[in-house]
């Protein structure tokens, strides 16, 4: 059973932390915030999250005939401030600089990929996995979605996990949550969010199972605790997949849970080591063979 330990590798995040170059960001989260009168008001409210109505009144949705629309449209087309225009130009600079500094990188990547890390994280723009790890293209295979939720039957994340583990043979699977997560804030509230409601259901289930604990904490600590619990739930889903259990046993695949602090750029690794009894039960219940 020794090969089935779901142990962490402490040096992994330590190395990543040394390479972190992130900076605090005050942009609002992508999820509308829950109402203020909920039992636990997440601290993301202090980061000026926008409302659903605000998001629907952005420049591209305004009446084309309005002066406000004309002004906003002009602003969005200003090549000196438009991020897509800037990004296209910077891509040329980045590609040239990277080719100079790492002349073998792009020719090698053109022949295939051998990433060591599978990253399962949130879609949040403040959580760019390759940048925060200080790594390069080709190093990290990625699946990101709102609030890094891993639905057991989700075809998208399931296909990514199976391909990464079975075919790319990654050495590490990382589930990453983050501070100020809008999805977590939404699940801590009770506002109807349309299509996001079924998506966030696993988060609400975690909230339900840990309600007493979460209600005993100040709002900001409760939100952070739900981030952590969501990561642990994601790890449960990952390690209930037979392809993952097989890779752990046969070639020492490591599974990690981390939390990214968007206010400092620093990753923190969670202690995710299971007991031998828990590992034994998981193998009995979930491991299958061809
Ligand atoms: Zn998030």
Automatic annotation (TrEMBL):
GO terms for molecular function: carbonate dehydratase activity; zinc ion binding. It comes from the Eukaryota. GO terms for cellular component: cytoplasm. Residues 23-83 are annotated as: Disordered. Its cofactor is Zn(2+). The keyword Metal-binding applies. Binds 1 zinc ion per subunit. The keyword Lyase applies. It catalyses: hydrogencarbonate + H(+) = CO2 + H2O. PANTHER family: CARBONIC ANHYDRASE. Belongs to the beta-class carbonic anhydrase family. Reversible hydration of carbon dioxide. This is Carbonic anhydrase.
């Amino acid at each position: 059973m020794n090969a089935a330990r779901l142990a962490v590798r402490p040096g992994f995040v330590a190395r990543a932390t040394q390479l972190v170059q992130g900076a605090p960001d005050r942009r609002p989260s992508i999820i509308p915030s829950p109402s203020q009168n909920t039992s636990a008001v997440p601290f993301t409210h202090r980061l000026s999250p926008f409302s659903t109505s605000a998001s629907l009144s952005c420049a591209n949705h305004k009446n084309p005939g309005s002066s406000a629309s004309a002004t906003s449209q002009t602003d969005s087309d200003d090549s000196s401030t438009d991020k897509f225009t800037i990004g296209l130009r910077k891509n040329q600079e980045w590609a040239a600089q990277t080719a100079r500094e790492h002349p073998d990188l792009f020719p090698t990547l053109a022949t295939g990929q051998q990433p060591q890390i599978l990253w399962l994280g949130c879609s949040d723009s403040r959580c760019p996995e390759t940048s925060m790890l200080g790594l390069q293209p080709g190093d990290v295979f990625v699946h990101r979605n709102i609030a890094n939720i891993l639905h057991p039957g989700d075809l998208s994340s399931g296909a990514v996990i199976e391909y990464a583990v079975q075919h790319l043979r990654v050495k590490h699977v990382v589930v990453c949550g983050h501070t100020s997560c809008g999805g977590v804030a939404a699940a801590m509230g009770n506002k109807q969010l349309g299509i996001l409601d079924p998506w966030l259901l696993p988060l609400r289930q975690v909230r339900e199972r840990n309600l007493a604990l979460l209600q005993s904490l100040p709002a900001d600590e409760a939100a952070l605790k739900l981030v952590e619990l969501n990561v642990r739930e994601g790890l449960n889903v990952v390690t209930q997949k037979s392809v993952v259990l097989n890779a752990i046993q046969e070639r020492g695949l490591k599974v990690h849970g981390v939390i990214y602090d968007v206010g400092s750029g620093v990753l923190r690794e969670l202690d995710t080591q299971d007991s031998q009894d828990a590992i034994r039960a998981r193998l009995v219940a979930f491991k299958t063979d061809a």
